[in-house]
Design goal:
Blueprint: E1 4-5, E2 12-13, H1 20-39, E3 52-53, E4 56-57, H2 62-66, H3 75-80, H4 111-121, E5 127-130, H5 137-141, E6 146-148, E7 195-198, E8 201-204, E9 210-213, E10 218-221, E11 251-255
Antiparallel strand pairs: 1-2, 3-4, 5-11, 6-11, 7-10, 8-9
Length: 257
Amino acid sequence: MADTTTTTYGLTKPEIGASEDTWGTKINDNLDDLDDLLDGTTPISPNLTALKIGGSTVTASVTELNYVDGVTSAIQTQLDAKAPLASPALTGTPTAPTASLGTNTTQIATTAFVTAALQAAYPVGSIYINAAVDTNPATLLGFGTWTAFGAGRVLVGQDTGDSSFNTLQETGGSKDAIVVSHTHTMNNAGAHTHTYNNQPFIQDSTSGGDTRPAGSNSTYSTSSAGDHSHTINSTGSSGTNANLQPYIVVKMWRRTA
C-alpha cells in the first residue's frame, strides 16, 4: 500500500507497514510543513466558523473584516491625515463641483463659478470704472478683452425720444462755452429835446429886495441838437472750459470681447 496525502494541506500519510526510517522522514517533513503553515510561511485559506483571539470570540462579520482589505498602514494614522468635517484646514489645490450660474445657496463657490458670475455681470459692451488704478480689467478680472473708453467725456443715459441721446455711444457737446448768435438794437440815434418854463420875476420892495414870480409863464423847447451814438462794450469772461460741470476723474474701460 503506497503513501497517501491529506486533502487540504497535502501532508504525507506514510504507508502502513513501511519501514520506520521512511516513517521518520515523512513525519519530519510533515512537521516542517505544519510549522510553515502555522508561522505564515506557507499561506493557508482556513474556513473558520468561529475565530478567537486571546480566548475572546471575534464577532465581526466577513463583510466587516473585508473593510480593512488593502490597508497598508495603521488605520488611525490614515484617518488622522484626513480633513475633519468641521473647519477643515485644506492644503494644496482642493476641488469641488461647480454650481450652475445663479445658484444662491451655502454651496461652495469654485473659482469657475466666480469667474462665470463676473462674466455675467460684465457682458460684452459693459463699462468697468475704477477710481484708483488704470490696470486693464483683463488683468484684474481674469477674462475678456477691454479697451479704454470715454476719455474726457461723461456718461449720459440713453433717451430714445431725444435725437441728441437716442443712439448708444453717440457723442456731442463741448467743454467750451459758445455764445448763441444774437444782435443788439437801439430805437433811434439819440436826437431829443428838452422843455422848460419861462416865468418872469419882479422885485419885491417889502421883502428886502427878494424876487417872486410875476404870475404868468410860457413853455419853451430847446432845439433838437444832440444827435449822438452809443457804444456797447464787450464784457464777460472767457468761454474756455465754461461748460464743465463739477466732475471727478476715473478710468473707464469697455469690454469688446
